[in-house]
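Q: Predict the bound structure with S-adenosylmethionine.
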Amino acid sequence: MLRFDIITIFPEFFRGVFDFGIVRRARAAGLVEVAAHDLRGWTHDRHKVVDDRPFGGGDGMVLKPEPIFEAVESLTGLTGGAESFRQASKRVVLLSPQGRQLSQALAAELAGAERVVVVCGRYEGVDERVSEGLATDEVSIGDYVLSGGEPAAVVLVDAVTRLIPGALGSETSAVNESFSEGILDFPNYTRPVEFRGRRVPEILLSGHHAEVARWRRRAALRKTRRNRPDLFAGVELSEKERAALDEEDE
Ligand SMILES: C[S@@+](CC[C@H](N)C(=O)[O-])C[C@H]1O[C@@H](n2cnc3c(N)ncnc32)[C@H](O)[C@@H]1O
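A: Predicted complex:
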């Protein structure tokens, strides 16, 4: 059982969002548990203040460190910072556009933890001491700026949950997906065989499993080269595959 604890100033944001598809099934099967907590619950003043102005000046507000440290420490029962969390198989993820980008590999790593605490920033972000002294991981979901960490938390919970053994219908499904082997997934087709003048590639109708597998690998490589040259640069091609791709270029 992997438990996600999301710390946010908008716990209502998560109402219903994990009630669909694979995440819903994984929750129902007891593979994951997801709880959203109101950061203001760890403040001690009458107005439940969680933010303050940035030192050095500038626009906007910054989330204060005290309630976040208190929230994470009370949820984990640990006060020793990042090292103590890792030793206890717990991860504390600070969502931030300044983080390391979420990847299938990082999602798989998190799927192996017992507990993942997710800190959602807002406003201009979070006091840097959360990154320096509390989080085990500072994670971005991509090179763009969201208004808050909440949408990123949904992405992270979904991507991690589907990698927990048993979460997908078939154990092999995740193995064949995009990124699992450093390339994108192959293109899929379903009925009808012809649609608006476009036919499904004949080989997929042939019933020749080895030929289909070869076609799929080649189609996946082609698509990776076209859409993700950065990934393609790291792919090791066999002589045959290189020749086949070169031939298609001519
Ligand atoms: C408006 S953003 C802060 C942006 C920050 N001033 C910057 O430019 O790096 C507010 C919060 O949204 C979340 N956030 C924004 N973009 C994100 C991204 N790409 N990945 C993960 N979280 C993000 C973070 O939690 C962040 O603290």
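A: The beta strands are 2-8, 32-38, 51-52, 62-63, 90-101, 115-119, 137-140, 194-195, 198-199.
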